[in-house]
Each structure stands twice: as structure tokens, then as C-alpha cells.
């Protein structure tokens, strides 16, 4: 996987004014890989290693959730987009209070979370991603890229969500 660092302003839209000085762990990192099965564990390891190397203050539960999201999104890109998108990109953006992971491919079709039959062993990836993000107090969305592809992202708070 190639790593393309991209500056120090990873805030999602509407993230408010930047802090006076970025924290040491803030930044945006982008990894590219072939849309093949072997890229799933590579992406997981790359994200885990990046979080550790940068000293991002994440709990074990948050790391587990982020790695599950990365696995599901990369798997979807490999299974459903590889024909039109032989390469994919994984981006990790870390702010003072949140972390955002995204997977981009050049396939034009927006994915749909399907309710899978209980007898099926697959088909629940996007539902799982949404549920993991929701439980952490985060959000998931899909956006079209200027090149005609899409990017699916999940942003999770660094601190656990408080239940009402």
C-alpha cells in the first residue's frame, strides 16, 4: 500500500474553527492499493499501525470498530467495484476530537445497505458499518467524487458517546 500524507486539516465539513495549534496526532493519510482480497488485511494493518504510530488517543473499542469499518468498506470495494476500479484508496483523517476513515473507488454506483436473509453469510457489510458508527456516536455517508466514483466514509468521536 502506498501512503500519501495530505496536510494537517482533516476536519469534516462543518467541523468548526481549527484549534490554535494542531495536536501532534492530527493529520490526513491516504493509502492506495489494488482492489484485491489481499488488500483487506493490508488496509486494516495500515490503519492500526498509523493510529499507533501517530499516538492517536483511541480506546481499544474504537480501534476495533474502525478496523471493522475499514474491513467492510475495503471488502465491498474489492467485491463490487474492482471491475471498474482496479485501485482503491483508504484515507484516515484525525482531528482533535474525531477520526474519519474512508474508502474511495472509481465505480459510479452508490452502494445500498440491504437487509440480508438470515440464511445468507454475506450482504450485511454496510448495515454493520452504520451500526458500529451509530453506537460510537458517529456518522456514515457516501459522496460522489469529481472523477465519477464514490467515497464511503465513517467519522467517529475519539471519546465514547454518552448515552442519554
List the helices and strands and how they pair.
Elements: E1 2-5, E2 27-34, H1 39-54, H2 60-80, E3 87-94, E4 98-105, H3 125-136, E5 139-144, E6 150-157
Helix pairs in contact: 1-2, 2-3
What can you tell me about this protein's structure?
With about 160 residues, the protein is of the alpha+beta class. The protein is about 30% helix and about 25% strand. It is built from three helices and six strands, in the order E-E-H-H-E-E-H-E-E. The protein has helices at about 40-55, 60-80, 125-135; strands at about 1-5, 25-35, 85-95, 100-105, 140-145, 150-155. A six-stranded antiparallel β-sheet has the order 1-2-3-4-6-5, with helices on one face. Strand 3 (about 85-95) and strand 4 form a beta hairpin. The protein is globular, with a radius of gyration of 15 Å. The protein starts with a strand and ends in a 7-residue tail after the last strand. Mean pLDDT is about 85; it is low at about 5-10.
Neighbour order of strands in the largest sheet: 1-2-3-4-6-5
N-to-C SSE string, H for helix and E for strand: EEHHEEHEE
State the separation between the terminal residues, measured CA to CA: 41 Å
The low-confidence runs, each spanning 5 or more residues with pLDDT under 50, are: 5-9
Summarize it.
This protein has three helices and six strands, in the order ββααββαββ. The chain is α+β, with helices and mostly antiparallel strands and 164 residues long.
Amino acid at each position: 500500500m502506498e501512503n500519501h500524507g495530505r496536510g494537517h486539516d482533516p476536519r469534516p465539513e462543518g467541523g468548526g474553527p481549527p484549534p490554535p495549534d494542531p495536536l501532534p496526532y492530527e493529520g490526513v493519510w491516504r493509502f492506495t492499493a489494488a482492489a484485491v482480497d489481499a488488500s483487506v488485511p493490508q488496509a486494516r494493518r495500515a490503519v492500526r499501525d498509523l493510529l499507533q504510530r501517530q499516538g492517536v488517543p483511541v480506546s481499544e473499542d474504537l480501534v476495533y470498530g474502525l478496523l471493522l469499518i475499514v474491513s467492510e468498506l475495503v471488502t465491498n470495494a474489492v467485491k463490487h467495484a474492482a471491475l471498474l476500479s482496479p485501485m482503491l484508496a483508504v484515507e484516515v483523517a484525525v482531528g482533535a476530537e474525531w477520526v474519519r476513515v474512508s474508502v474511495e473507488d472509481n465505480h459510479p454506483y452508490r452502494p445500498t445497505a440491504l437487509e440480508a436473509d438470515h440464511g445468507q453469510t454475506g450482504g450485511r457489510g454496510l448495515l454493520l458499518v452504520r451500526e458500529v458508527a451509530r453506537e460510537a456516536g458517529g456518522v456514515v455517508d457516501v459522496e460522489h467524487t469529481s472523477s465519477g466514483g464514490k467515497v464511503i466514509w465513517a467519522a467517529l468521536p475519539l471519546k465514547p458517546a454518552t448515552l442519554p
